[in-house]
């Protein structure tokens, strides 16, 4: 109604929204979204900067701003957050005395008690929402596991276990963890005085279990692709519909049901932020809710980071496929993140030879390559250094005792147990410092991956390398034995009265017009050259990008 009457409806993002497909709108907390379609209660269509898409309505605060008159410049203006004359409301059910509640005004007699009563009521509402949505979510997961997965396993002729894992991911593990979580919530719920319920501790006890959502969120795009492929066949469409009807589930397609866990894990920080807002600092649950909010934000951030890392493995595979003369195992066997890259001088022993090389620091390993002398964008693989167990030693400028030569902006990679040693020099001191920071970051990345259990599966690695090889073949031009070569052919311009001449013409692939012949014409004192062939003479005229026999004449 607000959109149709000429008003601009804006919403302030309360939390980052992670996009899982092209139809969704991604945004950061605090951004203002212009709402363009709010007919659906759960998902709205909005715009941020140049992007448009669907986003969950419960991720934002609603705020309304009238459209500026046509005579005023600037059109719709970005609303000031919490500005005067503009009320922010979490949802449509929030009471009108929200600002008074937030201020906690107790100046008037009984005002403080009224504000506290309103705060308790709002805390009760948030707690009831957390419990009710959690119970609905458990039913939703049960319907997927029992209504779809169980039925699919009965049809081995239609589904393999690998297919089921691609479609449903680890949703059965999520179901088991969520059952334990909702049971803990119900035990902490105070039925007589709900606002005294202490739910923060439940989130803290189960925060490690929530990390399994990372695997599910990372697999979700693969599930959408596989479902899209299967639903092109009518037998799978009928089968999935029969599963839904037998389980008495609402009329939503399977891919819609599978999106719910992605939405759920991103909604927890929002719910905890609301709970903390209505929890008095003296409340027994305040510190636990505060810690739980921080923990669930970290879980959401971890899921974001893992999603980004898995998207990067395709880029790493493509980079490896572009390197000439690659040797040894694939990068993705051990690495999944490019930390830093740049050019360094590698000093080899015992002759103390200096070599300019391009170095690429990944987690666990350092790759170095040589540039092509003519095509500077082409790299040749020259070797790698295993970073696990190596120590990075900063060297002072001066004479090196081992090599008996002067060094500057140098550092050494030294293996204490193996005795392996690599001396590398940067051109500038600033470059050296950046490399030293990059090596420290690489070790920190490895440590975090070990703590969080992040790794790339064999299937993901193989798929990334397969995609890279396909793209490499698609980009590779047709092979020629030589860049330019000469072929003999009959010249079509010769008349029948003249002896058939054999001339040399330059044959080459199609390319952009060259300025080569312009340069020749400016430098050469003449443009006509005579040549003799079988006693006849002709004039060979140089033209741009081609050699043609222009005419034949007698001496």
Automatic annotation (TrEMBL):
Family annotation (SMART domains): PH, RhoGEF, SH3
Any coiled-coil regions, as ranges: none
Subcellular location: Cytoplasm
Domain DH: 122-306
Domain PH residue range list: 337-444
Keyword Transport: no
Keywords on record: Cytoplasm, Guanine-nucleotide releasing factor, SH3 domain
Gene3D superfamilies: Dbl homology (DH) domain (1.20.900.10), Pleckstrin-homology domain (PH domain)/Phosphotyrosine-binding domain (PTB) (2.30.29.30), SH3 Domains (2.30.30.40)
UniProt protein name: Rho guanine nucleotide exchange factor 4 isoform X1
Organism listed in the record: Pteropus vampyrus
Lineage: Eukaryota, Metazoa, Chordata, Craniata, Vertebrata
